[in-house]
Amino acid sequence: MSETGRCYRAQDLERFLTDAFVALDVPGDDAATVAHLMVEADLHGYDTHGSFRLRQYVNRLRDGGTNPKPWIRIERESDATAVVDGDNGLGHLAMVFATELAMEKAAAHGIGWVGINAGNHAGPASLYVKMPLARDMVGLYAAVGSANHVPPWGGTDLLLGTNPIAFAVPAGEEPPVVLDMATTVAAAGKIKTLAQRGEAMPEGWMVGRDGKPLTDPTRQKEGFLLPIGGPKGYGLALVIGLLAGVLNGANFTSDVVDFTADTSSPTNTGQFIAAISVDAFMDVDAFKREVDTHLGRLKSSDTLPGFDRVRIPGDRRDAIYRERSERGIPLHPNLVQALSEIAEELNIDRLS
Amino acid sequence: MSETGRCYRAQDLERFLTDAFVALDVPGDDAATVAHLMVEADLHGYDTHGSFRLRQYVNRLRDGGTNPKPWIRIERESDATAVVDGDNGLGHLAMVFATELAMEKAAAHGIGWVGINAGNHAGPASLYVKMPLARDMVGLYAAVGSANHVPPWGGTDLLLGTNPIAFAVPAGEEPPVVLDMATTVAAAGKIKTLAQRGEAMPEGWMVGRDGKPLTDPTRQKEGFLLPIGGPKGYGLALVIGLLAGVLNGANFTSDVVDFTADTSSPTNTGQFIAAISVDAFMDVDAFKREVDTHLGRLKSSDTLPGFDRVRIPGDRRDAIYRERSERGIPLHPNLVQALSEIAEELNIDRLS
Prior knowledge:
The structure is a homodimer.
Chain A: E1 7-8, H1 10-23, H2 28-43, H3 54-62, E2 73-77, E3 81-85, H4 91-109, E4 111-119, H5 126-129, E5 137-143, E6 165-169, E7 177-181, H6 188-197, E8 206-208, E9 223-225, H7 231-245, E10 269-277, H8 284-299, H9 315-327, E11 329-330, H10 333-346
Parallel strand pairs in A: 3-4
Antiparallel strand pairs in A: 1-11, 2-3, 4-10, 5-6, 5-10, 6-7, 8-9
Helix pairs in contact in A: 1-2
């Protein structure tokens, strides 16, 4: 993947991203929070959801689409639920606020389920579902995608996003289970990366309007992303849109603003995050031991021809994290170029 | 599908099922509750999850695998969560108990999330996720499948079930959205029905141990069900197993008891049901209007060649329900034969 580029230290990248946001009137603390989460995404190998997204965030801050100084607040609340108004700030900020609130509620009432409106693209879901792990809680997240690339099953109108869903479940000695998936076979970000690199998509990711496979990532707009399991993935994307979007007063279907194409309109992006306290269900240590036992059995399965081992969702991320923390984050030359252009535009120090 | 058989009136089928359970020492009220839900499944066209399952339930009650007189109770509880011990009774009974509890908690605290252990096969998920709709709540359900037909992605050991997930979301004038899906391309019940009817499976439902397509449903045991989206469906099945099973003290992976093959061991089946009060998030009428708007847009999409219209998950079920409520429930001759054999074994009146 990105191993062709030079490696950069996490702290240097974080400083660069912070500088970029501050140059666009984002307060220093908020800038540092978002920069840190973007670099966390890079460190874990979410190459399409970390600093790769700076260009989009910068354009939207520059053109008034995103509010640099949001007043993030609780709009509606019950014991175990809330709706948070992200005030159109950088999406990471509302997500951190909502996740902390969900954990507080889970500690007091067993579960906390917090929806967001007026949010924005917030990087990979795994950033947020993993936060409850430190408190022995399960994390659950879903979002309305930041652009519509998917028609309803059997249709051709682009009314749905890749609407991701994510879960994190604590384990004992084993790494936690972290599942972070688009409801399409491929995520839009991966296609962007292939386009940037001049590589082709595998068949099965997209079809054209004629229903035939589409493999040229630069022709993405001429076709549709395919949902997983056909009508099932469509159903999941629809339900996620209703729960992460409509239920929180956020946008869905044709109201969704393509956050890349339109850099000046608020997106009113919707997400939800839930934290579930393991202790409300059973003894935490017993749970972790049981999870370890089941994960061990899955990993010990005999393999199909062509597979070296059975993986647990998220288990590769830890290895990538360790490697990148040590050796640095490899950035593709095209991305380095894009970051240099941003440095010039904003008159900040280049990444070095 | 089952249109080749004679039609039976819902009330006659319900009486027959009640008699069968009572003959196996199930108290009259409980027998009637389960019979009613099984006929509801038949009326909605869930042909693999209604009276089709009587044979399995009867065998397990007869052989001591299922407890006819369970003491269903709350094992652990917080404001917004609970774990229910189903005491190994018929699965429908614990599910009704848990769903009512989840709705009470949602009314008081915004959301109620209730897990079950010592449950059993409980028919289609849609029966339970639809219950919260009457109280303007969203329903969410998942279960550990009642037998392992699926290996982890890349593996060959059968450690996972079809682990279904289901959602119901209220609408206004439109029918509610009811998504009830296995995390495999095909559900095990559908394969059973094809085997009973002597029909072949489409390619893509299963592969053999050689990785090649398997289409003969009677050879089901020689191959694997395929998860939706490959590793994504595997990830979903795993997380569902942890949340519906392990978190509630229920079985998962190699502890799962095949409830057809083994009729004398408790299955310790796990499920969870959540109810989410729309009112905790936004004005109920405004929500319903918004949902209607979005569903209308999806249904108005232009269609791909080969599709007459875009469907909303669950929308066919209402039409089937109306038709079957009027004309009766068509039962396949093989199923009628199986029910006759049960009548003879239990010395109860035949279905007529």
